[in-house]
Design goal:
It contains 12 helices and 7 strands. By secondary structure, it is an alpha/beta fold. The protein is globular and about 60 Å long.
Length: about 280
């Protein structure tokens, strides 16, 4: 079979559907946990996903968009096959994403030993699919004895700043005031949906603050693995901690569009969310 990631127009398609149906020889009965990310672009999902995928008992695919495949009618067996393949392909691509390397030397990215957990790191898109198809979460929860959700949180000023910067570079244009306000509103629309899910879902949902992961990597990696039911060996934790920068990238201080009015608007919006209310623009 050809590498389907080289042909995005085939995703999802009849060819891919048949591949996942016919090429897959596994039943994944040993997997007891299915895991999905919820959250926002530029919040640190890729780092957390790489740390999970590095564990020998886990597969964490890099942005497959699992719920969309589920919506298209893919079975558990087919979906898990694609998630495993996506993990392997990201490992084969030298772990490069958005200008960063997520390679963790000496660990198990793209492969595994005794597989216990499988999942997908596609936070913002997963939220969008849930918004339009809320029943998909219940469907996904029936795949394994355990269904767990990870919510990566980062200072909203940094998330918004990086999102705007990346879009400006890609589009080769500067955002207007109206465009900046739309990005702010989009961020808080995502936060609102997560807050509603936190109040209504019966599934286990773990908040992990990106800044805490950076400042206290070994502690936070241990807590993450423990939440997921993965073996918490110091060897694994130590190797993963080595790739984390010593301080978080505070992109808000490099952005020139933050007027006092915009800062006040974001600060006021953050106050409505218990998981965002402690953040500030100031260091």
């Amino acid at each position: 079979m050809k590498n389907f990631m080289n042909y995005p127009f085939l995703r999802p398609s009849l060819a891919l559907y048949l591949e996942s149906l016919l090429a897959n020889k596994k039943n994944y009965q040993e997997v007891d946990t299915f895991c999905l990310f919820l959250g926002y672009q530029r919040s640190g999902h890729s780092l957390v996903g790489a740390i999970i995928d590095a564990h020998p008992q886990a597969i964490m695919a890099h942005e497959l968009n699992a719920l969309e495949f589920l919506r298209k009618g893919y079975s558990k067996k087919q979906l898990f096959y694609l998630l495993e393949k996506q993990s392997l392909q990201f490992a084969q691509s030298t772990y490069q994403w958005q200008g960063y390397s997520y390679h963790i030397p000496g660990m198990w990215q793209g492969k595994h030993t005794q597989l216990k957990l499988i999942g997908d790191k596609r936070g913002a898109t997963t939220l969008k699919v849930i918004k339009n198809n809320p029943d998909l979460l219940d469907q996904a929860a029936r795949f394994c004895p355990n269904f767990k959700l990870i919510h990566v949180i980062r200072n909203p000023f940094d998330c918004i700043s990086t999102r705007i910067k990346r879009r400006e570079v890609k589009k080769k244009r500067t955002f207007t005031d109206e465009g900046i306000k739309k990005k702010i509103d989009n961020f808080f629309a995502q936060a609102t949906l997560i807050q509603e899910l936190k109040r209504s879902t019966k599934n286990e949902l773990w908040d992990i603050r990106f800044e805490e992961m950076v400042c206290h990597p070994k502690r936070e990696i241990h807590r993450l693995y423990d939440f997921l039911g993965l073996e918490c060996k110091e060897e694994y934790i130590g190797k993963c901690a080595k790739i984390i920068h010593s301080s978080p990238n505070q992109s808000r201080f490099k952005a020139t569009f933050w007027t006092e009015e915009l800062k006040a608007d974001v600060q006021q919006k953050m106050a409505s969310f218990d998981f965002l209310s402690t953040y500030r623009f100031a260091p």
